[in-house]
Amino acid sequence: MGEAGIFYSVKEFTEEERIKLSKEIYKTMNERRTARNFSNRYFSEEVLMNCIRAAGTAPSGANRQPWKFIVIKDKNVKKKIREEAEKEERKFYDNRAPEEWKKALEPFGTNAEKSFLETAPYLIAIFEEKYSYDEDGNKIKNYYTKESVGIAAGMLINALHQCGIAALTHTPSPMNFLNKILNRPENEKPFLLLVAGFPAENATVPDIARKKLDEIFKMI
Ligand code: IYR
């Protein structure tokens, strides 16, 4: 048996209140779109810190919290990241990507040009810690790291969205250049490069639809 814990309870609502709440939450979350064109408009570091705090409350395997959020606001570092990301993206679009994959990306109009990496006010490099070190410097294994950091990233995207901040999940592949540029240790594996800011004026997003509830849900 584990140690006796601390008391925990959840907010009490009537079912009517909960229905109203759940509708509002769905409405707000359904308004989120991935932005690909960003303006250079700024938002405060305090907002970003609070959203990262929120992401850090995610559940994780054995509570190891195997994530690290490195925020980049420095222009020169952003430029370096853009250069390295575009190098990989050029290889992806010119050679690596199979035709089928390129076809799947057509509706999004993506290409190797990643100017948003310099335009947006913040880049958040999210790292996954496959293992960590304890206080004595011994290697300790983490569990379900991909799931854990994936949940935390989702919570961060939602927190930003709730604050009126747009995001883009960018995944140049491979991303190991991030360790070099950001001086991260070898136990931190780049998971996602999240771009955060405001959509450019008159920015558009592709007219795509979400799956219907009955396509993603079944009650048994
Ligand atoms: N990493 C590339 C390609 C790309 C792949 C997927 I799957 C996307 O949903 C979007 C882009 C790029 O960022 O252009």
- The run of helices and strands is HHEHHHEEEHEHEH
Largest sheet entry: 4 strands, antiparallel
Q: Which radius of gyration do the C-alpha atoms yield?
A: 20 Å
Strand composition percent: 15-25%
The distinct bound ligands, ions and cofactors come out as: 3-iodo-tyrosine
What is the level-2 CATH architecture name? 3-Layer(aba) Sandwich
CATH topology: NADH Oxidase
Q: Choose one word for the global shape.
A: globular
Helix content: 40-55%
Total beta strands: 6
Strand order of the largest sheet: 1-2-6-5
Query: How far apart are the termini?
Result: 33 Å
Number of domains in the coordinates? 1
Poorly predicted sequence stretches spanning 5 or more consecutive residues: none
User: Structural class, from helix and strand content?
Assistant: alpha+beta
List the quaternary state of the chains.
Answer: single chain
Question: How do the strands and helices of this protein lay out in sequence?
Answer:
Layout: H1 15-30, H2 45-55, E1 67-72, H3 75-96, H4 99-105, H5 116-119, E2 122-129, E3 131-133, E4 139-141, H6 145-162, E5 166-170, H7 177-182, E6 188-197, H8 213-216
Antiparallel strand pairs: 1-2, 2-6, 3-4, 5-6
Helix pairs in contact: 2-6
The structure holds 3-iodo-tyrosine.
